[in-house]
Amino acid sequence: MHGLGNDYVYVNCFEERVEDGSALARAVSDRHRGIGGDGLILIGPSESADVRMRIFNADGSEAEMCGNGIRCAAKYVYERRLAEAGGVFSVPGGVEYPASLKIETGRGVLKVGLIVDEDDKVSRVCVNMGEPILAAKDIPVRVSGEQVVEEPIEVVGERLWMTCVSMGNPHAVFFCGDVGAVELERMGPAVEKHAVFPNRVNVHFVQVDGPGTLTMRTWERGSGITMACGTGACAVCVAGVLTGRGGRSCTIRLPGGELGLEWCEQDNCVYMMGGAEEVFEGVWPERVA
Length: 289
Fold this sequence. Notes:
single chain; alpha+beta; globular; Diaminopimelate Epimerase, Chain A, domain 1; 19 strands
């Protein structure tokens, strides 16, 4: 399945047993010798929500949260009836979604709203991604200040200005004039593994296109360049407000498509709206799992 081209292999752990998610993630994510993907997501029972999802990056490291992944997980759960959808999900002062689910993640239990088409297929998902974490020590980032807004950092001989946000996983946002001119293959891994980030970091370069519209490119921690990053888009929305470059409601353009974002003043939570697509279903050899 994929959300805007951010693709993961999903395993139904209500029916299957995965002993080593890290090893399986590396195997299935290989685009030449495996299935190919940005990582692996396991969907299974939860004691605190409708289902639990665990995310493993392509390098086998476990992530706390994946914004595009949770939209796909919600679609999978609803369409395969792994849990019964609840009542209306509302964005404060905004759209209402007629069905909802609660999904346990490494960031806690998150609520999602679903729009279902006439064929009972999920066509759009809204996720309450929770409140952004802005304290440097909690992101975490090793800097002297309490927050990281337009903080200078030296990377491969260049001085950049970063704004850092956690959405349950850490993000470093860099605003620039032209995201297409950024050497992401060189800058991405250098920032990801910089000494100021004890848990590594997701890296985003962003340009402001106009009122309420931004374009971003991403180097994801543990996966490299990806077509989209949902938690990253949330972090970019927040960073836009913190630096005075954007509003609380915006559209973010990613290589794989567009996401709608809103950082609500009423509850301080970030809401992410976008699609989810299933590509194919198959059987993976048991000897590798």
